[in-house]
């Protein structure tokens, strides 16, 4: 299977693992000369909060989720990392439940690999990923790479 598109999906909990996510996606995408789709997925409440925080003009009829994602610090930091390694990328923003929206984006972008972050679990929770990661792992149309922060 040829690797052409890698979806790196991030959300509000990923700001503390930018370096680990960037390293993982570069490791997968760079050798294959694949394009990375940097996707920030927001729930409705998160989206409203980010629009306020980033001072978007709420008088506009519709604010483009791609533009919101592009201005988000997590995506800007990831872009900087990918630029360092000369990895091609595009930015996508989406609003919805994290897991199902990531799976939908993987299908829409004809993704060959999804990269998602997660957090360390308690000993009893290790058998079960977080609900977002679990949904992506079980429902993704392609292989998934799960990245934990190196500090955990």
Automatic annotation (TrEMBL):
Entries under CDD domains matching the protein: USP-like (cd00293)
InterPro entries (UniProt xref): Rossmann-like_a/b/a_fold (IPR014729), Universal_stress_UspA (IPR006015), UspA (IPR006016)
Domain UspA: start-end pairs: 5-148
Organism encoding this protein: Natronolimnobius baerhuensis
UniProt name for this protein: Universal stress protein
Source species, domain of life: Archaea
Family: Belongs to the universal stress protein A family.
